[in-house]
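Hello,

Our lab assistant flagged a job as stuck in the queue for most of the afternoon. It eventually completed. Since we weren't sure the result was trustworthy after the delay, we are filing this so someone can double-check. Below is the sequence as submitted and the structure that was eventually returned. Let us know if re-running is recommended.
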Amino acid sequence: MDIKEEVLSLKDELVSLRRDFHKHPELGFNEKRTAGIVENYLKDCGLEVKSGVAKTGVVGLLKGKEGGQTVLLRADMDALPIEELNNVPYKSVNKGIMHACGHDGHTAMLLVAAKVLSRHRDEIKGNVKFVFQPSEEKDPGGAIKMIEEGVMENPHVDKAFGLHLGNMIPAGIIGIKEGVMTAEADRFKIEIKGKGGHGAYPHTSVDPVVIASQIVMSLQTIVSREINPINPIVITVGKIHSGDVFNVIPESAELLGTVRTLDKNLAKTIPEKIERIAKNTAAAFRGEAKTEYAFGYPPLINSKEETQYVISVARNVVGEKRVVKTPVSMGGEDMAYFLEKAKGAFFWLGSMNKEKGLDKPHHSAYFDFDEDVMSIGVEMHVKIALGLLK
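-- returned structure --
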């Protein structure tokens, strides 16, 4: 059999693995059951396995017949704190937890790729490092912790690759671009202090809800009036909390939000702007505001040569017309840390199929994807590694 036939012969196993992971989702740094399955599967493939990396991460090492470069292939394992609303046989049995981003598919695809590559050990000149990463969804995630614990060494990683299922792309389409692929993802918290009182007598209080509302609107002037329009930036306040009773003006309010940028230098200028607006807006309404800012995942940057290599592999796997250049995503992705340490590329594997009703967005309680594309993902992993090491 050629590689494509070999991968397709494992389709039932691939789907079974994915559905098992989907039915038993686990949150970041708690992927104990998932990690146990991954560890045993890799050992059965004859790989050297290290578990407990960054708490629940697993690393499998496939050593080829001869020495050479080391290629890292990565999958993330964690689920999201979402109650699943799909009515499928493999629906999550863990209340309030769901694989709503495709990481169950990522894990299954990389496991089966490890099995296929292990059968071709004698053709490999070098090593393949299979990295099953915990906690991609929660910043700080598992990638940086795995790097701190030495995943890029022993043996040293020369190139790194990863993929992400994409329900915004038709099934079977592979999308990639050179350079910045995803945004830096930072977060902030603004604590507002006012003066509480009765809702019927607002003049005797300093209303933190009003201050919070003004700050939310004013923060958008950073995007519209302080940043060059050619530089993409998103500032989103995702959570507002204040008070517990309808007729009471509370003492305080809290805002939580995220900032997305494509330029590290631009990102460094944002904390001062948010702090200035929050502090001065609060002062204008007789209140106070304190800002905390945390820099998160850096922009994910695909190196030129490795991007072109993935494109060539993708054209072989799905055909030239099914490989497209995708726009930058303002989402964050901690695969970026691996690509800061080694040249490589990250790409989308289209998984949306409207005819099957599989077109719900990522992080939706109704998210599901076309399982037929997973064989493409396995073939991509295998051929990326073999093409570099054969």
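-- support follow-up --
The delay was a queue issue, not a problem with the job. The result is valid. The mean pLDDT is 97. DSSP finds ten helices and 16 strands in the chain.
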